[in-house]
UniProtKB/TrEMBL annotation:
Name used for this protein in its record: glutamate carboxypeptidase II
Signal peptide positions on this chain: 1-22
Start and end residues of each Peptidase M28 domain: 326-512
Enzyme Commission code: 3.4.17.21
Topology in the lipid bilayer: Single-pass type II membrane protein
Residue ranges of every copy of the PA domain listed in the record: 144-229
PANTHER family, alphabetized: N-ACETYLATED-ALPHA-LINKED ACIDIC DIPEPTIDASE, VACUOLAR PROTEIN SORTING-ASSOCIATED PROTEIN 70
Source species taxonomy: Eukaryota, Viridiplantae, Streptophyta, Embryophyta, Tracheophyta
Record flagged with keyword Transmembrane helix: yes
Places the protein is found: Endomembrane system
GO cellular component, one term: endomembrane system
Family annotation (InterPro entries): PA_dom_sf (IPR046450), PA_domain (IPR003137), Peptidase_M28 (IPR007484), Peptidase_M28B (IPR039373), TFR-like_dimer_dom (IPR007365), TFR-like_dimer_dom_sf (IPR036757)
EC class (word): hydrolase
Amino acid sequence: MINAATTTFIAIAASFSILLFSCPPKSYYHCLFVSNSLSDNASISNHLYMLTRRPHVAGTEANAEAAAYVLSTFTSYNIKSYINSYDVTLTYPVSRSLTLSWPSQNQPITFDLLEEVYDGDPYSDVAGEVMPTFHAYAKSGNISGPVVYANYGRVEDYVTLKAMGVNVSRTVVLARYGKIYRGDIVHNAYEAGAIGAIIYTDRKDYCGGDTGDGWFPDAKWMPPSGVQVGSVYDGAGDPATPGWASIQECERLSDEEVEKEGYVPLIPSLPVSAADGETILRSIGGKVADEDWGGSKDASPYRVGPGPGVVTLNYTGKQVIASIQNVIAVIEGIEEPDRFVILGNHRDAWTFGAVDPNSGTAALLEVAERLRKLQKRGWKPRRTIVLCNWDAEEYGLIGSTEWVEDNREMLTSRTVAYLNVDSAVYGAGFHASATPQLDELLKQAAQQVKDPDNSSQTIYDSWSGSNNSPAIGRLGGAESDYAAFVQHIGVASADMAYGAGYPVYHSMYDDFVWMEKFGDPTFQRHIAVASIWGLVALRLADEEILPFNYLNYAYELQESAKDLEDEILGKGISLTPLFKSIEDLKKAAIKVHEERKAMEKGRGWSMWKKDEFKVRELNDRLMMAERAFTDRDGLNGRHWYKHLVCRVNFKFRLF
């Protein structure tokens, strides 16, 4: 005879079984997320087409319309969404001119500074909306001087010029894009004594060089008239509100104070095309540059000057306080709504932005759509997922930085990780960078997603290549919207994309036609990026114990410390305390790993056996460990940057 106690036990067990088997495990939804049944390359293609119909620079009506499109798309998926606005300092061109004179020419050459519309261009009707080529935050001025060719404008290039006996003082530097940030090109020219800087696109690097393929629209390369525009601001966030949010009526630095901060250029600059750059190069005499300073095989030898060519550069910009719009969408977590997994991509573009950034925006909308499909099938995240579409990234990571500064305390205490996709697709080959505790998670996600260019293998297989493991980069500097999360508040972060760089970068030729013909004709690379991006987010949002591995962090720090030890050998500096601290981190990482394994034993009965407070405490230690690498006062001379490791690409420096 069955007694009452037995009956009660059977009832409880039956209830548990119903609960256990009626709700699929989170891993089921994760596999479903990357399945073909949920992905939609036609939807991604349509999103990209809609987002790139007009040029949409930050602060313009067209970009506000793009924000409205993103908001309406999120809303159509029944995801709680809203616009988050800031009033920030932006600059636009008012007038610019460039003339060249040299003894062999009777008349000065006046450059038209125009990117040409090609025959059959479907965007010819809105080409007039493309902003005149310029550098954001460039200093206004009218300067004239002999030209010096400075290769890529790096510090070492000026060392070479000095060794050649070239005096850069009071000259106008001509440098080419390709190796360093354009703002650093202008800064280095100023430090060398130049009065202005012209940055051009060299055929060797962007226009097909010696391939003979031609250029867009017949090939992927930049046309001779193409110009790479962009910002020359060296900071993050609104230059007039360093460290605090640009909300209405907030305190702002004066123009003089902004210049003293050291992040805006102190000499005028202008970007020009390959054709215009070559014309200026032909006016330069002096010594012949080394072969590695030269152009494509059919190009004449490059000379360094100074002169005899003389350029006159006139640039006038206007500075405005403009409204920018971040679009924020929130899927609230069930068990831990106060823990955030944040995905971000920016929306603003210098022109049409099919690659940079709206391939990423289209992928973000694809992730949102798939998450909604999971919700319809019963999925509910453990932690809150936040989808962010940033504005004014191109000017200097402004939308994301202002949001982080505005919500600093909340984000510092609640953010599990930030996952960034700037541009989802540049071309072939998957690439990722991250803080090291996310390395294994990225690799595992890549093992679950098919290679869009070879269905017989996974992305992990192609990413690894002939190596035993794929190379994962590090998030040094401030190259995209992860900067505020990593560098300012110390949040574990990752950045990912298909491809790395593309020829028509920041030009009017970065449009839907280029993407459809050369970047991703089937839009399967977009699908792949959305799959890995979303899968990593799902695991961070759903797994009971956060999938962080700090052993990777300790091992990498050890290697960096050994490199530093070699650099300072014989200088009387001991790194013993540093090595001891890294060893302590390693021991702590091992201990946490053992704690995790102990908690995961008997996982099927976790609701009966596991102390949820212990899990929470372990997760908080994993989440907050990245914060421990930050310093409240920031780096010497760069106080906004708080992270002591990531700012320098995981290579130690003595500050």
